[in-house]
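In this section we walk through a basic example: taking a raw amino acid sequence and producing a predicted 3D structure, encoded as discrete structure tokens. The instruction is simple. Fold the sequence below.
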Amino acid sequence: MKIKQARAAMAHPAFCGVARRHLGKLIEELAPRWEAPCESARHERRRGARRRQAGAGPRYELVFTDRLLATLVHLRTGLTHEALGVIYEVGSSTIGRAIREIRPLLAERGFAIPDRLGLRLHTLEDVFAYAAAENITLRIDGIETQVRRPRANRPGRQALVSGKRRQNTIKTTTISDQQGRPHPVVQRDASRPDARPTCTSGS
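The resulting token sequence is shown next.
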């Protein structure tokens, strides 16, 4: 599958869960925040200012749009890193690295509540508090998605081994209201066992 075909498929709301008009705005909003630390890291490696024109060096295997789409699809469908790697024709480690870069941006942005301009939920506690205040009944389901096992002596290598699957997994909780409308995807980072669950969504 060519990269343009993969991008077109992943950008469909059935996969990423975001309407196309919102997806474009999301890319515009988050791309600069992703690029800033990348450029800072390149500046440190160069130990100074850029010596060549922008774009003259090695190209990313996945541009920001594809990194964002891979993350949204992974969060929405539970598609594994390996499967996404097949679609984009990259290694599963590349997908895993992209998801680790994008998830904090989505978590920091929070989950927007329809018809409540300016209100965003960032943690599971926020979701429950909002539901209680608005008298909303929540329907909660959970899935486990296999992930690459952390290297030896890294956090999460033993702590997040699924008792059912006997593999390292990420636990993802999907929430909807009584009308079936989706609420935040709540996920725990496999590399940070002590981290609080965060709400991530492209809304």
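Looking at the output, two observations stand out. Strands lie at 111-112, 120-121, 138-146, 169-177, 182-187, 198-200. The longest strand covers residues 138-146. In the next section we compare this with other chains.
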